[in-house]
Amino acid sequence: MWRNFCGWLLRVMGWTVDSGLAPEDKCIILGVPHTSIWDFAISYLYYKSLGGDAKCMVKKEFFWGPLGWLLRKLGGIPVDRKNPSALVLSVIREMKSQKVLHLAIAPEGTRKPVKKWKTGFHTIAREVGCPVYLGYFDWGTKHVGRGEKFELTDNARADMERIQQIYEQMHLTGKHPKDYITH
Known about the structure:
Distance between the termini: 41 Å
Structural class: alpha/beta
Largest sheet: 8 strands, mixed
Number of strands: 8
Radius of gyration: 15 Å
Shape: globular
Low-confidence stretches: none
Mean pLDDT: 91
Number of domains: 1
């Protein structure tokens, strides 16, 4: 019932789903462009409408009172962004301990415009041995999907350069277009 409701709500909001769930038990799905808290809502509705259950990292400051309960119910994992190394290690431990975990990550790391995207997802994927998908939510066309699988190499910076080039070629529009920079 929840799955149908999420699909219906996406359609009512004018969104089109372009692809299904990731077939692997564990994976990382990048979410680009991340310019608004609404990106989380669209991503949540998209994955739930397919019967999936993705998790995402949310800064720990949001996890207080009823909001914390709600974020956990929606798949939020509280993280301390002040210590990036500890954050990556804790996510690696979490992914290794779970049989099934689809983790959504915004490589921009924030809703503000940034040129240098974060590579923590690369470290996590390589350590866990899981694939990375180039997920997207395009507010210009209102299309959402998990995107293509991206084959990682040992060079995180070179991979990030290629990933940003692919996203740039997709001509995506963020909810707040001025806050999305691919290069």
